[in-house]
Amino acid sequence: MDKALSDKLMAVSVATLATALFKRGLRNQVIQGVHPVKAKGVNMVGPAYTLRYIPAREDRNQLTEFRNPAHPQRVAVETCPEGHVLVMDSRKDPRAASAGDILVTRLMVRGVAGVVTDGGFRDAATIGELAIPAYHTRPSSPTNLTLHEALDLNVPIGCGDVAVFPGDIVVGDDDCVIVVPQAIAKDVADEAVEMTAYEDFVVEKVKAGTPVIGLYPGTQEHFAAEFEAWRKSHNR
Amino acid sequence: MDKALSDKLMAVSVATLATALFKRGLRNQVIQGVHPVKAKGVNMVGPAYTLRYIPAREDRNQLTEFRNPAHPQRVAVETCPEGHVLVMDSRKDPRAASAGDILVTRLMVRGVAGVVTDGGFRDAATIGELAIPAYHTRPSSPTNLTLHEALDLNVPIGCGDVAVFPGDIVVGDDDCVIVVPQAIAKDVADEAVEMTAYEDFVVEKVKAGTPVIGLYPGTQEHFAAEFEAWRKSHNR
Amino acid sequence: MDKALSDKLMAVSVATLATALFKRGLRNQVIQGVHPVKAKGVNMVGPAYTLRYIPAREDRNQLTEFRNPAHPQRVAVETCPEGHVLVMDSRKDPRAASAGDILVTRLMVRGVAGVVTDGGFRDAATIGELAIPAYHTRPSSPTNLTLHEALDLNVPIGCGDVAVFPGDIVVGDDDCVIVVPQAIAKDVADEAVEMTAYEDFVVEKVKAGTPVIGLYPGTQEHFAAEFEAWRKSHNR
Amino acid sequence: MDKALSDKLMAVSVATLATALFKRGLRNQVIQGVHPVKAKGVNMVGPAYTLRYIPAREDRNQLTEFRNPAHPQRVAVETCPEGHVLVMDSRKDPRAASAGDILVTRLMVRGVAGVVTDGGFRDAATIGELAIPAYHTRPSSPTNLTLHEALDLNVPIGCGDVAVFPGDIVVGDDDCVIVVPQAIAKDVADEAVEMTAYEDFVVEKVKAGTPVIGLYPGTQEHFAAEFEAWRKSHNR
Amino acid sequence: MDKALSDKLMAVSVATLATALFKRGLRNQVIQGVHPVKAKGVNMVGPAYTLRYIPAREDRNQLTEFRNPAHPQRVAVETCPEGHVLVMDSRKDPRAASAGDILVTRLMVRGVAGVVTDGGFRDAATIGELAIPAYHTRPSSPTNLTLHEALDLNVPIGCGDVAVFPGDIVVGDDDCVIVVPQAIAKDVADEAVEMTAYEDFVVEKVKAGTPVIGLYPGTQEHFAAEFEAWRKSHNR
Amino acid sequence: MDKALSDKLMAVSVATLATALFKRGLRNQVIQGVHPVKAKGVNMVGPAYTLRYIPAREDRNQLTEFRNPAHPQRVAVETCPEGHVLVMDSRKDPRAASAGDILVTRLMVRGVAGVVTDGGFRDAATIGELAIPAYHTRPSSPTNLTLHEALDLNVPIGCGDVAVFPGDIVVGDDDCVIVVPQAIAKDVADEAVEMTAYEDFVVEKVKAGTPVIGLYPGTQEHFAAEFEAWRKSHNR
Question: Which domains does chain B have, with CATH numbers?
Answer without folding.
Answer: 31-180 (3.50.30.40), 187-234 (no CATH)
